[in-house]
Amino acid sequence: MRDSGGEKEKVGAMNHLSTVAAFGFDDFDSPVILDLYRQLGCTSCQFYRNPTNPPTTEDAIRITRDVGLPIDSIHGLFGDQHDPACPDGNIRRAAIATYQAEAELAVQLGGPMVVVHPSPFAPKGHDILPGERNRRVDPLRRSMVELARIGEQMNVTFLFENNPDFAWIGHDPLQLADIIREVASPNIRMCFDTGHANMTGSVCDRLALCADVISYLHISDNDGQTDAHQLPGRGTIDWRGIKRTLLAAKRQVPAMLELFYSADELRQFIADGVGDQLTQWLNAPSPGAVHSRHE
User: Fold this and answer.
1) Per-residue three-class SS string for the chain
2) Quick one: pLDDT at residue 12?
3) What is the pLDDT of residues 233-289, one digit of tens each?
4) Is the dihedral of CA 239, 245, 248, 253 positive or negative?
5) What pLDDT score was predicted for residue 33?
6) What integer pLDDT is reported at residue 112 of this predicted model?
7) Angstrom distance (rounded) from CA 120 to CA 164
8) Whole-number pLDDT of residue 251
């Protein structure tokens, strides 16, 4: 495989489990939920906040530190007003400014990686024509080049996430990987989302073909139709195939569980030994090994 960067990955090493750290949502008690994910085997977290009710930087750092899950990255803002592939130059430049600010936040939180959606989603029911996708390729490439410069200056990596097929662009992981290779910057990498990939084709095949540009994983399962953020094994993804693919790739990256279960559900997963199954599928240290380092 070609490698267009990503010197942080270590050949032959294991991945490690991470989890989403959601802040500002009524149904997510951050300290409680994060501690349960730690018991499942997670060793870091990705910061994600409700933009209408964000935590202070100090609170986010304190909560994650006290739980023992340092922040490894942040999920950047996304939506119609944050479009790095927009053909309208003013909107695209505004997105660059947004992600520069997100990079500053990531540095403050101690996890200098920012997940970026290549584009927002098209309106519900809109059939996206090939021409509408094609005219967004050059603006997306231009945004990656500009963010590469920002990333180099700030020592931040921007992780472009493959989208579901109802996004304007970014739905094809192979096309997204090709654009990242063209930019050829260690500060522009891919966050490979298994749930999104399952909605657009074969997850294992695409994971293998994108492996050289992947520096982060979003892990969830679904039925191939709806982005349900289910526990691995409860959808249609071949997780044993995922393990074989990850072992062949020989890279160490965070495998972030992008799941949104209640505390009671997580406690049941822990009792059922789900953490051991996840670490086997994702080539990560077992929960027992994780606990021995923290306790």
Assistant:
1) CCCCCCCCCCCCCCCEEEEEEEECCCCCCHHHHHHHHHHHCCCEEEEEECCCCCCCHHHHHHHHHHHCCCEEEEECCCECCECCCCCCHHHHHHHHHHHHHHHHHHHHHCCCEEEECCCCECCCCCCCCHHHHHCCHHHHHHHHHHHHHHHHHHCCEEEEECCCCCECCCCCHHHHHHHHHHHCCCCEEEEEEHHHHHCCCCHHHHHHHHHHHEEEEEECECCCCCCCCECCCCCCCCHHHHHHHHHHHCCCCEEEECCCCCHHHHHHHHHCCHHHHHHHHCCCCCHHHHHHHHC
2) 43
3) 999 999 999 999 999 988 789 999 999 999 999 999 999 999 999 999 998 998 976
4) negative
5) 97
6) 96
7) 10
8) 76
Task: Using a cut of 0.90, tell me whether the model's pTM lies above it.
Answer: yes
Which residues does 284 contact at the CB level (< 8 Å), separation at least 6? 14, 15, 16, 17, 41, 255, 278
Backbone region of residue 273 per phi and psi (left: phi > 0; alpha: psi in -120 to 50; beta: other values): left
Question: 16-294: which CATH number, 2.40.50.100, 3.90.1150.10, 3.20.20.150, 3.30.450.40?
Answer: 3.20.20.150
